[in-house]
Design brief:
By secondary structure, the protein is of the alpha+beta class. 35% of the residues lie in helices and 20% in strands. The chain folds into two domains: 248 residues, BirA Bifunctional Protein, domain 2 (2-Layer Sandwich), CATH 3.30.930; 94 residues, Anticodon-binding domain (Rossmann fold, 3-Layer(aba) Sandwich). The structure holds adenosine monophosphate. The site of adenosine monophosphate has 17 residues, from strand 6, strand 10, strand 11 and helix 12.
């Protein structure tokens, strides 16, 4: 038999791990709702052009990391799995005429993204992002609001040591001159540049600034800075974003090398960094303003801003700091029976409990009562419901497992009795 494995760069999330995921997904949804973001879901794949136009062809994501879907026929459209959520959401904004809705349109999504990247610790080919987008607001206040939302997400998730890196990368008015200046700055060093960076010099010189190659550190430290060359409008915007962050008490570090990998960003660019971690895994989220993207994808010029927070790396960090949530608690009640063969009675009683909203399971195997009770205790159940002779009179035994007490309860009162005692126990009243 062949041995089957999850594809390289993907993982199975086992029930032992999913409680942490569920907690973060709920937090993401609750927090986004608290800030007025409404849920949107877009397809996991889109027309290739949405990303090639939207993200820009001279980015790693498009050049090397797109997961292309093989067309079934010659005429098929070309599709790719989404490497990031923004372009798909903007495509939906344009397609559904959301510019006629009250602006900004504030939407959120949490789901898997796909990049054909070289897998390593904290870098997967399928990973999850919590994403928020505010489309139709030029800022600067919303820029600060969204950054504050990101920091709150980490804080409420229980992660300390998250730093906000902030930059402005200008706009169509001031960036071209800066790009020319930057090219002229690196040009004399062309032959000395690492091969990858030499390629970028011709195609997307901004990317040199966020090179992770140590050989670039000296050169990059002295490179001209965008923030010193912003046009008046961009400079005013950037100052106002900082003033709003200051007023909210959100700390940040100005990082002139922060350009983000995606072409569609304008003005505000930010990243959430985890202090004290290595390389790639430090980047736990990021976002920025993308005032040009709606137009690029066929809409009218529309300012917008958003972020994507990687859940995989966040969970890795939480696990290391022992913030992971233990496996979910077992069932409230387990229905067991003195007659090993009477699975019908057990299934009927457990069905009745579930219909009344009690999380419960029944022993459906033909084990002896003692074994059934042992398994119930191992599950961490609060109650064992014991079906015996008194069932003929409509009664069952209700055993409080942690307390070690037992009483007879009418079947008709069972669910109510369990809920009352369970609630008292949960609220610290102890078993009654
Ligand atoms: P990006 O759009 O590249 O800025 O990604 C936003 C966030 O998604 C990053 O800060 C990471 O937390 C996460 N992320 C990006 N790529 C990957 C990947 N291949 N594996 C796991 N997480 C990733």
């Amino acid at each position: 038999m062949p041995t089957y494995r999850a594809p390289r760069g993907t993982r199975d999330l086992l029930p032992t791990e999913t409680p942490t995921w569920t907690r973060l997904e709920r937090l993401a949804a609750d927090l986004a709702a608290r800030y007025g973001y409404r849920r949107i879901e877009t397809p996991l794949f889109e027309q290739t052009d949405v990303f090639e136009r939207g993200i820009g062809e001279v980015t790693d994501v498009v050049e090397k990391e797109l997961f292309r879907l093989a067309p079934r026929t010659e005429e098929s459209e070309s599709w790719v799995l989404r490497p990031e959520p923004t372009a798909g959401i903007v495509r939906a904004y344009v397609q559904h005429g959301m510019r006629t809705w009250p602006q900004p349109v504030k939407v959120t999504q949490t789901g898997p993204m796909f990049r054909y990247d070289r897998p390593q610790a904290g870098r997967y080919r399928q990973f999850w992002q919590f994403d928020v987008e505010a489309i139709g607001d030029p800022g600067p206040a919303v820029d600060a609001e969204i950054i504050e939302l990101g920091t709150r997400f980490y804080r409420e998730a229980g992660l300390d040591g998250v730093e906000v890196l902030l930059n402005s990368i200008g706009d169509a008015a001031c960036r071209p001159a800066y790009v020319a200046e930057l090219t002229a700055y690196y040009e004399p060093h062309r032959v000395a540049l690492p091969a990858i960076e030499r390629g970028r010099l011709d195609r997307n010189v901004l990317r040199l600034l966020d090179s992770k190659d140590p050989a670039m550190a000296g050169l990059n430290a002295n490179a001209p800075r965008m923030t010193e060359r912003l046009c008046a409008d961009c400079a005013e915007h950037f100052a106002a974003v900082r003033a709003h962050l200051d007023a909210l008490g959100v700390g940040y570090r100005l990082e002139p090398g922060l350009v983000r990998g995606l072409d569609y960003y304008t003005r505000t660019a930010f990243e959430f960094y985890l202090v004290g971690r290595e390389g790639q895994q430090q980047a736990i989220g990021g976002g920025g303003r993308y005032d040009g993207l709606v137009e690029l994808l066929g809409g009218r010029p529309t300012p917008a801003i958003g972020f994507g927070i990687g859940l995989d790396r966040l969970i890795l960090a939480l696990t290391e700091t022992a913030q992971a949530v233990p496996s979910e608690a077992g069932p409230t009640a387990v229905v067991v029976g003195a007659d090993p063969d009477d699975t019908i009675a057990r299934l009927r009683v457990v069905t009745q409990l579930r219909a009344a909203g009690v999380g419960s399971r029944a022993e459906l195997g033909r084990r002896k009562l003692g074994k059934q009770l042992e398994a119930a205790a191992r599950d961490g159940a609060h109650f064992a419901v014991i079906l015996g002779d008194e069932l003929a009179d409509g009664n069952v035994g209700l055993r409080d497992l942690p307390a070690g007490t037992q009483k007879v309860v009418a079947l008709a009162d069972l669910a109510r009795e369990i809920e009352r005692a369970h609630a008292a126990h949960r609220h610290g009243g102890g078993p009654d």
